[in-house]
Amino acid sequence: MTSLYQHGTLAMLMGKQMQGTITAAELLKHGDTGIGTLTGLNGEVIILEGQVYQAQSDGQVNHITDLETLLPFASVHFYKPTQALPFDAVDFTTLSDKLQAAQLRNIFSSVNFHADFSRMHVRIAPKQVPPFPSLLEVATNQPEFEMANVTGTVMGYYAPEIFNGPTAAGWHLHFLSDDKTFAGHILDFSASHVTGTLQIFDEFVQHLPVQDAGFRAMALDLEGLHSGITASEGGKK
Q1: pLDDT tens per residue, range 118-145
Q2: Are 30 and 204 in contact (CB under 8 A)?
Q3: Which of 8, 98, 111, 163 has the greatest CB tally within 10 Å of its CB?
Q4: Could you read off the pLDDT of 15-72 as tens digits, one per residue?
Q5: Number of domains comprising the chain
Q6: pLDDT interval class at 224 (50, 70, 90)
Q7: Is the per-residue pLDDT at 173 higher than 90?
Q8: Which of 174, 116, 186 is nearest to 146 (CA)?
Q9: How far apart are CA 93 and CA 97, in angstroms?
Q10: pLDDT over 70 at 106, yes or no
Q11: What are phi and psi for residue 150, nearest 5 degrees?
Q12: Which residues pair with 70 in a beta bridge?
């Protein structure tokens, strides 16, 4: 059995619950690879080979070595690839098409690949302070960065449409350059010389911060939840 472990929900961030509720140390017990964000939506986290990196909204990339650092939302798994990726070149809009034979529509999966990127376009959430705004409010004013001719790693997840709310339906991908100086939540990319893997999960473990008073008291606007998540993720699925 291969498991994808997720702490918190994307709906929580839409509901203004951005307080950290799990430590990096606890999270790493459930996986050595993944993505997430820090307390106050402070940047974009990518976890590779058990190491935690944070892209800040000023463009700086940090190696997080304090494992007591808190996260409100993250997804992790242990890297045990299902198959090699069947393509040498890809961009954000063609990723699903190139994996069509894998029939991912109704399952959770992840990609992890290294490539040369002629273009990498990312955004990075800026740190928020209490009282927290909603994720959608933050998404309307996020710094974006582009880099041409960069080599690095893309890591992220595909989630079925029915799980839009607990997480983001479609692809949610983060990037980290080889030199650890450029990273973020991917809005678009164009890649060649792709080498990497697809991993399929037959179990989705949703962990909730039930001891957190803010989460217990949270009220959600369910009517606008899905459209808000799509907008906050960059509008591409």
Answers
A1: 999 999 999 999 999 988 889 888 999 9
A2: no
A3: 8
A4: 999 999 999 999 999 999 999 999 999 999 999 999 999 999 999 999 999 999 999 9
A5: 1
A6: low
A7: yes
A8: 186
A9: 8
A10: yes
A11: -125, 145
A12: 23
d(CA 90, CA 44): 23
Using the predicted structure, report yes or no on whether residue 152 has a pLDDT greater than 90.
yes
The CATH number covering residue 132 comes to 3.30.1330.80
Tokens of 159: 């989630």
Peptide bond into 126 cis (omega under 30): no
Whole-number Å distance between alpha carbons of 73 and 147: 27
Look up the domain containing 154 and give its range. 3-233
